[in-house]
Design brief:
single chain; about 230 residues; six-stranded antiparallel beta sheet; two-stranded antiparallel sheet; about 40% helix; globular
Length: about 230
């Protein structure tokens, strides 16, 4: 990822990253979803989308909002790589907690050079995932495909493994950590309410009663099902 072109503005990078994240979840990147993700007015989104389309970074897809072009995806992955390497470096080398690194990386990702990020990655021995379980794009612009369900999608009796968690709400991250709900942990789903959607889980290997995970928090924990024995 050599810096062979002028850097994009912070707002353009934020838009590309937001659109990539929305479409990665399998959702249509509509004006309303982009506006909500960036906390801006829909009118602002309309104007920026036009600019990005003119720059060849995205295209309109009928009934599916907008999608990044190949060029747009490459630029989005540059930003995402910077962000996730920064998160990892802040936690592993500078002693930040996992609920603090997201906001700090948001501030630094637009200023850090690709050269600095590559040196950080080398110092970290090229990590494949950030502290919250999200895959880190390679310097060549490749990223592991993710297609995870959430803990809110499970049924009683399932055995699942936490693969990643949403990192944008520090309070939620602190709650996950306090209950041992972190990437790599395996869970047995003991019950799921049909009304409120709360899920009762037990961490594999731990004794004692299960713990109730509220529906909103469960939607932010990404899991894969594991075979039962």
């Amino acid at each position: 990822m050599e810096e062979a072109h002028p850097p994009l503005s912070r707002s353009v990078e934020d838009y590309l990253k937001a659109i990539f994240s929305i479409t990665e979840r399998g959702e249509a990147a509509s004006t309303s979803l982009i506006a909500a993700a960036l906390e801006v007015q829909p009118a602002s989104v309309t104007g920026m989308v036009k600019r990005l389309a003119e720059a060849g970074l995205l295209q309109h897809v009928p009934y599916h909002g907008v999608q990044l072009t190949g060029k747009g995806i490459r630029e989005a992955l540059r930003v995402i790589r910077r962000h996730r390497i920064l998160e990892t470096y802040l936690l592993q080398r500078l002693g930040y907690s996992w609920d603090d690194v997201h906001a700090e990386a948001e501030r630094l990702e637009h200023a850090a050079s690709e050269r600095l990020i590559d040196r950080m990655a080398t110092a970290l021995e090229d990590p494949s995932h950030d502290p919250h379980g999200a895959p880190i794009p390679t310097s060549a612009g490749e990223i592991e495909e993710v297609d995870f369900a959430t803990l809110a999608d499970v049924t009683a009796g399932d055995r699942v493994r936490i693969r990643a968690v949403d990192d944008e709400e520090p309070e939620g991250l602190r709650s996950m950590e306090s209950h041992g709900l972190v990437p790599g942990v395996s869970l047995h789903v003991e019950a799921r309410e049909t009304t409120g959607g709360d899920v009762t889980v037990r961490v594999e290997g731990k004794r004692g009663p299960g713990q109730v995970v509220g529906h909103q928090l469960a939607k932010r924990i990404f899991v894969t099902r594991t075979p039962t024995t």
